[in-house]
Every structure is written in C-alpha cells, then in structure tokens.
Amino acid sequence: MKTIFSAILMVVFAVAIQAQNRFENAKKQSSENKELILLNFSGSDWCIPCIKLHKNIIETDEFKKLETENVIVYINADFPRNKKNQLSPELKKENASLADKYNQKGLFPYTLLLNSEGKILKSWEGLPSENALAFSKEIREIKDNQKP
Fold it and tell me: Is the predicted pLDDT of residue 147 greater than 80, yes or no?
C-alpha cells in the first residue's frame, strides 16, 4: 500500500512540475536546438476563430513539420470555459502567467513567435489570413533570418 501511494504521489508531482515548467522547458529546448517558440492563446471550446486556427493550421501536416524539423517548439495556452474541458490547476496557473506576460489585452486567438529568450519576433491577432502552407513558410523565413 505504501508503495502504491508513493508511486501515485511521484506521478502527480512529476505532472505538476512538467506543467509548471512547460514554457521554461520550451525556452531550453529552443536554445539547445536553435528553434523558435510558437505560443498560441486560445479558447478551445468557445472561441470560433481559435477552433478554426487549430483545425485549419495547427492540426495540419504542414504545421506539424515545423515541430518535427526543429523549426519551432509549440505551446498552446488554452483557456477553456466548459467544465468538462477544464485544465489542471497547475496548467491554469501557468497559462495565466503566460497571459499576464504576453497577452495582457486578453486577445483570442493570439499567436506569438518568440526566440529562445522569450523575445517577441512576430505576432498574429485573431485568425491569421494565411493558409497553413503560407503560415508555416512565414515562420521558416523568420527562423532563417535569425542570427546564429
């Protein structure tokens, strides 16, 4: 019984630490792999433009290549409203902290392209007008123009 309790406690603690350090981990990974960070603020269950952004851009193969080819580290700071979609308290806290720093106006969707230090390189307010291919190409161009 003691072993089971310890194992459960360790899993809960590991998840909490991972959630609290998601952005710091992204900055570290970004620095190590010379990637950019794409931070997206969304309301996944109430914001129609957010839902369209995820369906038409973020969930596409073209966008996913950005992650697999070490162009970006993607973070979604989600703010769902429906009770069934609520996030863990740790993730809510981290998303609120990211919003305090990067989305003080409370825009949704709001997408930022950051360097490994967290400096804003580009921002998109609302649903980007580009399709997934053009959106991904723009991110690649910004990355290619970064000084090593």
Answer: no
Please say whether the beta carbons of 117 and 52 come within 8 A: no
Q: Is 91 helix (H, G, I), strand (E, B) or coil?
A: helix
Going across the sheet that includes 36-42, the strands are 72-78, 36-42, 110-114, 120-125
Q: Are 47 and 109 in contact (CB under 8 A)?
A: yes
DSSP state of 66: H
Radius of gyration of the chain (CA): 17
For the segment 81-125, what is each residue's pLDDT rounded down to a tens digit?
999 999 999 999 999 999 999 999 999 999 999 999 999 999 999
For residue 136, give the 3-state DSSP assignment.
Answer: helix
CATH architecture of 2-144: 3-Layer(aba) Sandwich (3.40)
Give domain limits for the chain: 2-144
CA angle, 49 as apex, 132 and 38 as ends, to 5°? 50
